[in-house]
Amino acid sequence: MKYVDEYRDAKQARAWAQRILRLVTRPWQIMEICGGQTHAILRFGIDRLLPDQIRLIHGPGCPVCVTPVELIDKAIAIASRPEVIFCSFGDMLRVPGSAMDLLGAKARGGDVRVVYSPMDAVALAQRHLDREVVFFAVGFETTAPANAMAAAHAARLGLRNFSLLVAHVLVPPAIRAILDSPDCRVQGFLAAGHVCTVMGTDQYEPIARRYDVPIVVTGFEPLDLLQGIAQCIEQLEAGRAEVAIQYRRSVRPEGNVGARRLMDQVFQPVERKWRGMGSIPASGLGLRPEYSQLDAERRFDVGHLTAEEPSECMAGAVLQGHRKPPECPCFGTRCTPEHPLGAPMVSAEGACAAYYRYRAGTGGPASHGPGG
Q: How far does CA 114 lie from the centroid of its chain?
């Protein structure tokens, strides 16, 4: 049965690729927002199925990748304190800060623990009332509801030894920042299905209208992406700029109303610095004043810490779609997953990691022409 399914999927993929070929009459440049989509595109060779006129541009859709160096340094400073149990998802532990990563802090005696849910960190705080338990709250809108639930639960329990180092970022302001750039070449977007499962699509409607760009919400399977690309090309060729949902098995226009309500209860929009992109107004989430007692940045007085991005790392250009990872002179030599210069090489959803894993040894973008 497995081989039948694989044959059917391959046949459908070829059919969608042929449909795209029939649709295209001129060059188009489309950005996929999510790093998971980038990995699927490279892993399954979706870019190689497309006609030469279509160029896929990789966007900043990896929350690990866009977390700035100074926030990693703040995490390390907190994790290095003897009274702290610092909790994080595993993908943050090897993201380089100015001098080390969180694994380095652990090797030097910091109590750094991998958890699988923010509620695990709350449970740790309940068991270790003599320690300060800090959870590194990183992610796009997808992880914000669970982190909001942990904050609300800790507040209800009256836990005085639990806090969050919040690093949440939001997708729509990043899209606006990309479109406002004078170097922008993007003519259409593939939006991330999991983000829109939580948030819905209403925040994308004003962007599509103002910038005259189609935005198609897609899933992460090869057929999802090919269908999403076809829907985006149909709009571009027809001169339309609408928000469309390809990923209908998960996404509703209104999103998850309960999750959004919980997020709004705990978090509020704040200015956030993005790795390689600088500060973007209202592009992050911070704790509301009524939850300020859970703010680890204030509790441990690390708000003053700043740091510069390493000059030899091209993460900013990669995250904004200006460069492909193999165009970096350090790619695969000075910068590898074992010894990364920047987060896009170490993250499981980073574009550099995707090229290293699926296109290593190509000497450059490994597909037709400039499409990468």
A: 19
Reported as half-sphere exposure (CB side, CA atoms, 13 A), residue 246 has a value of 25
Beta-bridge mates of residue 139 = 168
Find the angle CA(132)-CA(135)-CA(141) to the nearest 5 degrees.
155
> Domain map of the chain by residue range?
13-57+172-236, 65-170+255-299, 317-367
Residue 202, Cβ neighbours under 10 Å: how many?
A: 13
Measured distance CA(230)–CA(19) in Å, rounded: 7
d(CA 203, CA 255): 11
Q: How far apart are CA 153 and CA 159, in angstroms?
A: 9
Compute mean pLDDT per 10 residues along the chain, 372 residues long, and list them: 54 89 96 94 93 94 90 97 97 92 96 97 98 97 97 97 97 95 94 97 97 97 96 97 97 97 97 90 97 97 86 87 91 90 89 92 38 30
Please name which of 47, 95, 45, 41 lies closest in space to residue 73, comparing C-alpha atoms.
Answer: 95
Report the CATH architecture of 65-170+255-299. 3-Layer(aba) Sandwich (3.40)
Phi/psi for 117 (5° steps) reads: -160, 145
CA pair distance 60, 172, nearest whole angstrom: 11
pTM of the model: 0.90
Identify the pLDDT of residue 194. Answer: 95
Give the single-character DSSP code of 364.
Answer: S
Fold match, 13-57+172-236 / 65-170+255-299: yes
CATH number, domain 13-57+172-236: 3.40.50.11750
Of 129, 83, 75, nearest to 100 by C-alpha is: 75
